[in-house]
Amino acid sequence: MPKGPAGNVCAVPLQFARQTNLAGIQGNVMKLGNDQVPGESGHLLQRAYVLLNRLGGSATEAELIHFLFGAQNNQPAWSVLLASVLTSSPLFRKDGTNRWALVETVAAAGAPLDYVILHVEATGLRASRQRVMDLALKRFSGGQSSDAFASLINPERRLPQSLCTVTGINEEMCIEAPRFSEVAADLLEFIGALPVVAHDVELQIGFLNYELKRAGARPVLNPRIDILALATQRLPDIGKPSLERIAQRLKIPFPRYRRADKLVDVASEIYARLTDTADQVSQPGSPTENRHLFGVVARRPDWLDSLPESPGAYVMRDGKGEVLYVGKGKNLRERVATYYSLATPQNRQLEGLLTSIDDVEILAADTEEQALELESQLIREYQPVYNTQIDSHDPRPVIRVDLSGLYPRLELCGEPGGDGAAYFGPFPNGTAASRLRDSINSSLRLRTCQRKFENRRRKPLAPCLKLAAGECAGPCAAVVSPEEYRELVAGVVEFLRGYRSCLLDKVWQLAREAETRNDYLQASRLREHIYFLEAVELPGPPVE
């Protein structure tokens, strides 16, 4: 497959190759030839140039492997992958001591000038369960706004009162609005083939695609640019880059109500400011480390439409036929398409994988369970290098609450300990468990320290900085009584058991109290926690 610093895309019609039977599982195999999968070497060549330039023009093979692929070891497979990337460009040369050096410079790339800005407001945060209620788009040509599309949507369900308060939208307004199926065709025509720019773009397009699927229309698989990722890169000290927080940082007025037509204007201004900042940082004749956030995006190849929408597994190989990665999906077309709709790879490992793919093999299965079993068998058989780097096989975490303590706290652990504490889970991964724990702790200001209180019921302890910052209820300084604190924790336990209102009502009360004392920043943070806690998938009954 031809590859080069521009990340050229080559595609030919998909060919059905053969039937396969692997360990008793029958599946259809489709083979994508070497010239069918787009190269993304422009990403890695750019990163390699940045590192070499930073290190004075040369670096060891181990340094480059770690920087480009995130690998901690220097196995021969990584050396082969590194060589296949760097030898595709005349900018790099290798000497006799396993060091790579620069030959010449490359030019920087800028942000695309033609794109669509998107903002969606929905009844919750889980696209598969919630519905779109308000959406807006703005089309830009040559960097200038050229057209707009906005509409309230009838979500065909009752709106939460909390959402009406935040958006200013009531049920009467939605009843008179069109259903999503009535605007789907106009929406797709407005977007066309342009890159889609949005804050948390995967979430927003996810809502559109679920609604389009319900309407029987094709999904949006356009190239995407994420304002959230862009803000993280350009404003590294911003913390959690919500749209409101980014606007505050850039001194952009933020509307009182979260209406899509207002927020799409905010997103447009944020994107313009951030890309202007990127252009100012880039110097003529030298690369910008954020190039892949703008100009180099994966294009959707034509053969994706030929993939089945059934469950199954897929095998990714390099030019020599070595298996790089094995994955699965409940909808193979949508799963494989995600690799060609990213504005920027989510990490170095994925970036290295996309660069190295020369061949994709599709194995269809009848059920999701068969797809999972098929994936496991293929991983055991091939031991792909990227499955080792990307996938985690640690025990699934659980949340532990020791109710026997004077001031209980939420902890993460690998498995129940049989010590009388309450355990909830397991969660799919540590990120999901820690995000839920942190959201609860931040909302109710539960303690996160490991201090012992059982033997010091009368004498207060020296307060920590979290109390001064307003991030803890202050059990150490006796600001909150054990009875009040345990009442908060009891609501958390009921929430984790599946009774959401016990916790959500309390957080809404805290948000209203913050608004009453004109602490609008805290109120906004609490509302963000509410949206997350309303939509988060709970693990179910406590672990015995």
- Binned, the helix content reads 25-40%
The percent range for strand residues is 15-25%
Radius of gyration, Cα only, in angstroms? Answer: 26 Å
Major β-sheet annotation: 5 strands, antiparallel
Shape by Cα distribution: globular
Number of helices: 19
Span of the ends, CA to CA: 54 Å
Low-confidence stretches: 1-41, 104-110, 277-299, 343-348, 389-393
> How many beta-strand segments?
17
| Helix-strand category | alpha+beta
Which strand order does the major sheet show? 1-2-13-11-12
- The overall average pLDDT, rounded, is 75
Description:
With 544 residues, the chain is α+β, with helices and mostly antiparallel strands. 39% of the residues lie in helices and 17% in strands. It contains 19 helices and 17 strands. It has helices at residues 41-54, 61-69, 76-86, 161-167, 171-175, 180-191, 201-214, 227-234, 243-249, 260-281, 332-337, 348-356, 368-382, 385-390, 430-444, 465-468, 482-497, 501-516, 520-535, and strands at 15-22, 25-32, 58-60, 92-94, 99-102, 115-122, 132-141, 144-152, 196-198, 224-226, 312-317, 323-329, 359-364, 398-401, 410-413, 422-424, 542-543. The strands form four sheets. Strands 1-2-13-11-12 form a five-stranded antiparallel β-sheet. Strand 14 (398-401) and strand 15 (410-413) form a beta hairpin. Helix 8 packs across helix 10 (260-281), helix 15 crosses helix 19 and helix 17 (482-497) crosses helix 18. The longest helix has 22 residues, at 260-281. The radius of gyration is 26 Å and the shape is globular. Mean pLDDT is 75; it is low at 1-41, 104-110, 277-299, 343-348 and 389-393.
